[in-house]
Amino acid sequence: MPTIWTLIALLSVLSSTLADDNDTDLIDYKALFGDSPRRDLPFPDLVKYDNYPVEVHNVTTSDGYILSLFRIPLNNSCEPDEGKVPHIFMHGLYLTADDCIIPGPGKAHCYIYADNCLDVWVPNNRGNRYSRNHVSLNPDKDPEFWDFTVDEMALYDLPAIIDYILDNTGKSQVSYVAHSQGVATLLMLCAKKPEYNAKIKVGFGLSTTAYLEHSRFLLIPFQGIAADLMKRSDNTNFEFVAHGSIIQKTGKLLCGLNPLQYPFCSVLVFAALGYNRFQITDETLRVVTGHTPGGTSYKDFLRWGQMRNNGFAEYDYGISGNLKKYGRFQPPLIDLSAITMKWYFISSYNDFVGDVRDIAKLMARLSNVTQCILADKTFGHLDFIYGKDIPNYITPKVLSVLKGEGFPCDGDCSST
Ligand SMILES: *[C@@H]1O[C@H](CO)[C@@H](O)[C@H](O)[C@H]1NC(C)=O
Ligand SMILES: *[C@@H]1O[C@H](CO)[C@@H](O)[C@H](O)[C@H]1NC(C)=O
Ligand SMILES: *[C@@H]1O[C@H](CO)[C@@H](O)[C@H](O)[C@H]1NC(C)=O
Ligand SMILES: *[C@@H]1O[C@H](CO)[C@@H](O)[C@H](O)[C@H]1NC(C)=O
Prior knowledge:
Layout: H1 2-17, H2 29-33, H3 43-49, E1 55-60, E2 66-72, E3 87-90, H4 109-115, E4 120-123, H5 150-169, E5 174-179, H6 181-192, E6 200-206, H7 219-229, E7 239-240, H8 246-254, H9 262-268, H10 282-291, E8 296-297, H11 298-310, H12 318-326, E9 343-347, H13 356-363, E10 369-373, H14 383-386, H15 390-402, E11 412-415
Parallel strand pairs: 3-4, 3-5, 5-6, 6-9, 9-10
Antiparallel strand pairs: 1-2, 2-4, 7-8, 10-11
Helix pairs in contact: 5-6, 7-11, 8-9, 8-10
């Protein structure tokens, strides 16, 4: 196994450095694996293909990034309901808005929310394939464009998105469903700009990632090492796992032919993110390989290595930088005391990234969280967004809370 881990790490790093100008396939995977008409469609086209309405909005952050914000607006047959608030789905690390539509109508988060007459808004963090824009920086030419981590997503992207949605809809609150890094982003925002607590009616954390000490995701131990090695280097400002990069090609090559190839697929494309062939259907897998990964900054990849090393802590500038900035060798833990908004976490014992022991550690520092650890112990990290049981395990819990009907938990429930 360790050799494969190294291989994956190398592949991911290579994918960030090898330019991939021509989006040609290494082999004719369509002939081999069968194709999906949904595989290569970007978000707006895929939503139209699936027969839902879609809007594209641009949100400019106070530091100049131009983010694509998608919306699946209310369908006319929905009864007006003053009590309802706009509903945000926020994607995780390496990923995009696509995550909430990939499994398709009746199966994917955002379609299920739209079917339940929610006004669905789907942001994209800076740097992913839909948010490679800036008022003055060029992502293809200016390394400064890539000088960001989840800290900037929390302090600039998310507040700009929330305020844009509130402005646009005239509402005073939103509800928020997030996968993985998307949970950490709102935690950091409410910790540092406490006025945002009041703007969130309720948050749902799917596979919450903050502490990563027990994470078995094979890139994460590597990230921890890389974060240490890169402390002295200034050259961390570049794009990472961009859309159309090697991981995607590897996915196209190795996934979907026959069940014997699933182990390769699970290792190479899903990088042992708890990939689960019982949850991710062949059809969903084909669409995943056309959309994943979605790209971010190398610096954010390293930032999560810092979280692995330091806990849910402030940015690590290295010893001398930390002394200057924080007056101590190690960065301090992020102060979470200002977080008052209500969170519901949905977690799983088989989650290799959001390990339940790490989530327990986070919950011990939060005051308003109710958690359900799913009864199905095989549910993995990516199953929260691509799994066939989303309509059975996940969305009913979200919809029930939004209707004021409580948080049904068939597994292990706990509260802070
Ligand atoms: C990419 O395509 C262009 C035009 O089709 C061609 O000139 C170039 O050699 C190709 N580059 C690679 C690396 O295949
Ligand atoms: C959003 O911004 C991009 C980049 O500046 C621009 O190309 C696009 O036309 C804008 N779209 C909308 C809907 O404003
Ligand atoms: C509106 O939503 C209803 C309920 O989900 C659905 O049956 C209907 O097809 C939708 N209508 C349009 C025009 O999208
Ligand atoms: C928890 O959240 C609810 C709903 O927003 C709020 O009414 C309550 O005051 C919060 N409790 C604490 C202890 O912050």
